[in-house]
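Quick illustration for those who missed Monday's session on complexes.
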Amino acid sequence: MRALVTGGAGFVGSHLVEALVERGDEVVALDNFFLGRKENVAPFLKEAELVRGSVMDAGLLRRLTRDVDVVFHQAAASSSPMFLKELEEPVAVNVVGFIRLLEASRENGVGRVVHASTSSIYGNNPVPWREDMRVEPPNFYAASKLACEHLGRLYFQEHGLETVALRYMSVYGPREKSKGEYANLVSQFLWWMRDGKRPVVWGDGTQTRDLVYVRDVVRANLLAAKAKRVAGEVINVGTGKETSLNELVEILNRMLGKRLKPRYVRIPVKNYIFRQRADLTKARKLLGYEPAYGLEEGIREILRAS
Ligand SMILES: NC(=O)c1ccc[n+]([C@@H]2O[C@H](COP(=O)([O-])OP(=O)(O)OC[C@H]3O[C@@H](n4cnc5c(N)ncnc54)[C@H](O)[C@@H]3O)[C@@H](O)[C@H]2O)c1
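Prediction with nicotinamide-adenine-dinucleotide bound:
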């Protein structure tokens, strides 16, 4: 199989590149290094090709989608704070960049486009979150991703290009350094606590997240690339389990041999999400997806890799 991974030098993208190379696929990674870094994919560059460029470049996308079987679209302004200073550019990257990718994929007869959406779209819906719930994006980032879900579905309905949107919960794992302040809470807390610093927790720490290890997300992508009856669908990817931030701190204390107390601060953002948990019924049914990593196992993988 020949695959294009957009955002391939980023966190999830680099793990996708690694998995595709591992199983012997031909891989091209596209990244403009906004957050991605060459070192994330450096070990795989004997087999994979890394192209520096933007998903806004329609000509480049036309060239890179030639003879491609599957596109894994990860490139994005990938976090809500990126939309606060200036709105047009991150929305353009997420929405117009996606349209250009769809168009190039259609022109070149790409078999399927699997694209990263976000569970942020669910806002403060009661958990567990099901794909057929009414959603109301709580921020501009989520709104841009919801637009992409609709664009992807319509592209399939109108033009027959197979698209699948995966709504990731909170993804954590090795190689989040390049994301810095945008990294998952597991990594942020781990970095602080390893240095003996108390983790800063918004609110009282009872809020929960469905923390999913990056290799599970990669596997969901690979399944979505092959599964039947998924074109035009939106599918949750997570663990189906909730961990509170207080529990996360406890686990990290135990694993690092520390006794650091959280430093609780006032929640500084509007529309903060208090609980997150995926309903995985659809992922199980359509993809045969089952999360394989528990939280402690995932944290051990990060510690091993660093
Ligand atoms: N990590 C999570 O918890 C999570 C949760 C839900 C959804 N997502 C989505 O998953 C995808 C991957 O996220 P991630 O955590 O790996 O973030 P990331 O920021 O590490 O990855 C995105 C990559 O896209 C690249 N990029 C940005 N603009 C680009 C452009 N114009 N052209 C080409 N490349 C560009 C960045 O340099 C980066 O390498 C994103 O679409 C994100 O919105 C992530």
